[in-house]
Amino acid sequence: MNVKKKAGHLQRRLECLSGVLSNYKRDLAERLSKTKEIFKKKVYAVDIHTHSTFSDGLGTVQENYKAAMNCGLDFLFATDHNSLGQKRMVKKWSNASWGQEPGAGSHHIGLLHPRKLFTPKAKDIVTNFENAKSIAPFVWIPHPVGYYDNTWYSDEWIETLWTLGNSFAIEVINGAGKIATAYDVFDEKAVSVWDKLLCDGRRVTALGGSDAHGSDEIGTVWTGVYAAKCEAKSIIKALNNGHSFASEAPLLWLSCGQHIMGDEICRKRGTKIKINFACCDSLGLHSVRLIKNGEVIKNIKAKDVPMILDSYQYTVEQKSSYFRLECTAIDQRRAFSSPIYIKSSIS
């Protein structure tokens, strides 16, 4: 086969792969749309973590935005590394905004809507994290244990998460380098670290970000946000309240009375309360698990149904507790809710 024929053959293969990927992303969009119809709750699918040609991403801001809309996402943040040049690009869309993700010592720091470019100057993550919070209304820790494909953080670096204070947010699912599903051994360890932080009394919000460095990675994982409006200010407010879940496809709901995921509930010891939860995926659910203080207290085999509604009766204990929800769809796509925190009152 001559060079011209080889080039033509390669071009046809690339076009075929592009078509397959495009159809796959449309399937994701249709799946999410159908899931929302079944779920009947106002929730927004938000990618909080993407990269463009303003840093080390391969796609332009416009290409990333188009990819997000094609996947059925509701909102996109363009969070390049050491640039805010993307800020002027996203202003043309009401459902897009800017952010940043610089390296800052033992971890990277994600910032949404910073009012100026953040340049980490301290050697320790605590000072950098606090400085980031002074210029951005929401900050978080991306890929808290390392990132695909073989960059693992040391135990010493991971332990610095315990120095960040009593309340912060981390990515429990990161999709860097992934086109199909995102959840891998890095995320498995991130969830384990998350539970340890929660068991030690930290309030840690669950996030999912594609960390896309190519437009085709967008849609693999996102953050479900219970916000009043599909706008940056409202989404950021909800994220600060912990009203979120990390997902590859399923939708989650966790509540107790008027309180939802991210809220703290204070009740007299011995009071009986009901934890309500729901999981939904139009493709079908494989399993649903309710976690209390790091232990599975309810494990439901979903048998491929699209929706699970259930509850758990809990008697308030003297020791503070947290509950979180997780589920797996029939194609192994996962979702993890931010916790509800239960605290015993004095009287």
Summarize the structure.
The chain has 347 residues and is α+β, with helices and mostly antiparallel strands.
What does this structure look like?
The relative contact order is 0.13. The strands form four sheets. Strands 1, 2, 3, 4, 5, 10, 11, 14, 16, 17, 19, 20 and 21 form a 13-stranded mixed sheet that branches. β8 (167-174), α6 (185-199) and β9 (203-209) form a beta-alpha-beta unit. The protein has a domain at 41-248: TIM Barrel. With 347 residues, the chain is of the alpha+beta class. Helix content is 26%, strand content 33%.
Distance from first to last alpha carbon: 84 Å
CATH architecture of the domain at 41-248: Alpha-Beta Barrel
CATH fold topology of the domain at 41-248: TIM Barrel
Largest sheet composition: 13 strands, mixed
User: Any idea of the CATH class of the domain at 41-248?
Assistant: Alpha Beta
| Fraction of residues in H or I helices | 25-40%
The average pLDDT is 94
Spans of at least 5 consecutive residues whose pLDDT stays below 50 are 6-16
The tally of strands reads 21
Radius of gyration: 20 Å
Name the beta content range: 25-35%
Give the ordered list of helices and strands.
Answer: HEHEHEEHEEEHEHEEHEEEEEEEEEEE
Count of discrete alpha- or pi-helical segments spanning 4 or more residues:
7
The structural class is alpha+beta
Q: Based on Cα principal axes, name the global outline.
A: globular
